[in-house]
Amino acid sequence: MWAVKSTAFNLNTKESSFYIKKRANARVHVLLMAAFKLKDKGAQEQDCVITNVSVSGAGITFPRIEGAMIVNGAIVQLKILIPRTVLHVSVQGEIMWAKQRTKDILAGVRFLDMISESMFQQFQKKTDKV
Fold this sequence. Notes:
mainly beta, Thrombin, subunit H, 6-stranded antiparallel beta barrel, disordered N terminus
């Protein structure tokens, strides 16, 4: 069993951290821009930031939006932008946990369909060069 400390933007702050205790798939720390839309809510796409990603899920920082129900069990449609390209990956996910913070919401999202290993490597390669 291993633990990884992570936060939305500063990986060393205690207030914003969460712990990943056990993972079936390796997660990598990234800073990827994305857009999200809550499923079946008729809401417009909003920006969010992916702070860690694996083939099966991601840690995401969502903005606080009035009326947006970013809670356990909610389904979100994500468009993950691939850095330095015009490409994106679309994936649906389920909110597994959400932590309401002062200015945003930190959440763990499980992808309903895994992304391919090659796409996961593209996220990692493009982010490593930042």
